C-alpha cells in the first residue's frame, strides 16, 4: 500500500473513531439521563436537543463508516452491523473497537504483502509509439 493511500485510510479511521465515540456518548446520555428526565420528571427539553444532535451525528457516523469500509473493502454486513450498533447504547464503543482492530489488521497485511513482493514501481506512459 502506498504511503498516501495508507495515510488516507488512517485519516478515515480517525474520523470514524471520533464519530463512533461522539454518537455513542450522545446515545448513552440520551437514554440514561434525558429519557428519565422526560418520563419521570416531565422535562422533555434535553431529549429534544440530544435526540436531534444524535440523529444528525448518526448520519455522519454512517458516512464515515462507509468511507472506511470502502477503503478496506468491508462486506456490506460490516456496515450494517455498525449502523445497528449506533442505535444501541454502549454498542457503538464495541463496534468501534472491532472496526479499528480490523482496519489495523488490513493495513498490517497490506504492509506485509508490500515487503514480500517488494516496492511498487510506477511506470508512466509517454503515449509515444516506438
Automatic annotation (TrEMBL):
Residues 13-101 form the DUF3817 domain. The keyword Membrane applies. The keyword Transmembrane helix applies. It is a multi-pass membrane protein. Coiled coil: none annotated. Pfam families: DUF3817 (PF12823). Signal peptide: none annotated. It is found in: Cell membrane. The chain crosses the membrane at residues 20-41, 47-66, 73-95. Keywords: Cell membrane, Membrane, Transmembrane, Transmembrane helix. GO terms for cellular component: plasma membrane. Its main location: membrane. This is DUF3817 domain-containing protein. It comes from bioreactor metagenome.
Amino acid at each position: 500500500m502506498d504511503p498516501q493511500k495508507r495515510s488516507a485510510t488512517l485519516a478515515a479511521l480517525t474520523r470514524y473513531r471520533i464519530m463512533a465515540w461522539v454518537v455513542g456518548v450522545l446515545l448513552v446520555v440520551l437514554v440514561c439521563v434525558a429519557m428519565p428526565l422526560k418520563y419521570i420528571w416531565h422535562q422533555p427539553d434535553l431529549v429534544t436537543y440530544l435526540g436531534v444532535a444524535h440523529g444528525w451525528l448518526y448520519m455522519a457516523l454512517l458516512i464515515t463508516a462507509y468511507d472506511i469500509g470502502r477503503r478496506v473493502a468491508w462486506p456490506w454486513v460490516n456496515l450494517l452491523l455498525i449502523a445497528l450498533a449506533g442505535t444501541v447504547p454502549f454498542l457503538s464503543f464495541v463496534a468501534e473497537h472491532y472496526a479499528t482492530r480490523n482496519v489495523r489488521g488490513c493495513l498490517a497485511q497490506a504492509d506485509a504483502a508490500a515487503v514480500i513482493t517488494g516496492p511498487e514501481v510506477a511506470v508512466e506512459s509517454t503515449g509515444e509509439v516506438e
